[in-house]
Amino acid sequence: MHDELYRPLGQNLTSTSPRDHRRWRTAGVAAMLVAGLAGGSAFAVLGQPDFTPPARQAAPVEALAPSRVAAAEGPGPQIVRMEESGGVTITGGDGVPRVDGTTNPYTGSIRVLEPGSLRQPQAFAHLPDQALIEPSDEGPLPIRSGDGRRPLDVYAGTSNGTLGTRIAIVVGGLGISQTGTQQAVERLPAGVTLGFAASGNSLDRWMQTARRNGHELLLQAPLEPFGYPDVSPGEHTLTVADAAARRFEALDWSLGRLTNYVGVMNYMGARFNAETKALEPFLGELNRRGLLYLDDGTSARSQARDVATAGGTPFASADLVLDDDRNPQAIARQLDALERVARARGTAVGVASAFDVTVAAIAAWADGAAARGIEIVPVSALAFDPETKG
Fold first, then answer.
1. Which pLDDT belongs to residue 160?
2. In the 3-class helix/strand/coil scheme, how is the chain assigned residue by residue?
3. Phi-psi region of 175 (alpha: psi -120 to 50; beta: other; left: phi over 0)
4. Region Disordered: which residues (predicted)?
């Protein structure tokens, strides 16, 4: 009876042992399970929908407008204008995007998170970037480049990025006295920002020397003071009336006197800084050109901070004037006061003029700053800049 149960129909099989029968049954069950699993897997693969995204059709480069595709040459990050968004994605050498998703209202570009990723190499810091120049009858005017870079990005000075106590010192009036200019450019440490007067002399020569020495630069533009024209910063003063009417011929004259600067600092201009009707178009024009504005902090009536913040213009303001009293001991006391402000708040900005006594006092104070835990940074490192958020 046992043999009949295991005999295939129509065949006579020899008798097998129970162990052989169990081995045969086990192999048969395994084969059926494998076949079932294979069939199920095949059904699952063949029956599920295709989740592979369709390949994006890349537009040929020649079909795009020249402004829609751009690449940076030479060392540094590669910059590519993306057609879909009109923005800019910037990648480092490893190909990893470093962007924060903030869209530039003027160019549609995306600002860069990685500090210094757009900065000029030091070897070329004295050379103007031609993509950041707008030719004009008044000279080379600063402008945002087609790929979204700003003079503020490219000409910014360096800092080590630590979170310790940071102080920016701006020494202005360069270009007026050749001796004072030479002293400031050669004696002050690279972290000190230098402000060149638009009415100065040999500005391009001094700019190149200052940039080779590692300094960040500002341009001092004459703005209308109270009592103008009896009290005047000189020719080509931008008045409240002209700025309110968006007549920027005087400003363009100042901007065209120099290159390789990150922003504008007021020369006088107490009335100008108190008038929102002048500040709004003026700061908007600086923002359009990719520049910051530094208020020298001499007027308590200044509205520049509020207007700059509301309009998204990069902005900084001085906390102390260091050399109202040009006595060496008085300047040293002001530097100590600036240091106390910085220790209390984390940062501080001081302004001064390129007098010999001032340069000597700042140079002596700076010699021991690092040992006291102070980093001297360019003013752009402390500026409010809504396009970088970091």
1. 85
2. CHHHHCCCCCCCCCCCCHHHHHHHHHHHHHHHHHHHHHHHHHHHHHHCCCCCCCCCCCCCHHHCCHHHCCCCCCCCCEEEECCCCCCEEEECCCCCECEEEEECCCCCCEEECCCCCCCCCHHHCCCCCHHHEECCCCCCEECCCCCCCCHHHHCCCCCCCCCCEEEEEEEEEECCEHHHHHHHHHHCCCCCEEEEECCCCCHHHHHHHHHHCCCCEEEEEEECCCCCCCCCCCCCCECHHHHHCCCCHHHHHHHCCCCCCCEEEEEECHHHHHCHHHHHHHHHHHHHCCCEEEECCCCCCCCHHHHHHHHCCCEEECCEECCCCCCHHHHHHHHHHHHHHHHHHCEEEEEEECCHHHHHHHHHHHHCCHHHCEEECCHHHHCECCCCCC
3. left
4. 1-21
Angle between helical axes of 178-187 and 356-367 (0-180°, round to 10): 0
* CATH number 3.20.20.370 given to 151-382: yes
Please give the Cα distance from 105 to 164 (Å, whole number): 33
Residue 322: band (very low, low, confident or very high) from pLDDT cuts 50, 70, 90: very high
- The pLDDT of residue 114: 58
pLDDT, tens only, 50-73:
434 344 333 333 332 333 223 333
Burial 303-340 (b: 16+ CB within 10 A, else e): bbbebbeebbbbbbbbbbbbbeeeeeeebeebbeebbe
For the residues 224-235, what does the mean pLDDT come to? 97
Q: Is 108 exposed, middle or buried (0-12, 13-18, 19+ CB in 10 A)?
A: middle
Q: In the chain, what are the domain boundaries?
A: 65-127, 151-382
What whole-number percentage of the chain has pLDDT above 90?
A: 68
Is 51 exposed, middle or buried (CB count within 10 Å of its CB: 0-12, 13-18, 19+)?
exposed
Categorize the per-residue pLDDT at 389 as very low, low, confident or very high, splitting at 50, 70 and 90. low
Band of residue 105 on the pLDDT scale cut at 50, 70, 90: low
Specify the pLDDT at position 35: 46
pLDDT one-digit tens code per residue, 160-204 = 877 789 999 999 999 999 999 999 999 999 999 999 999 999 999
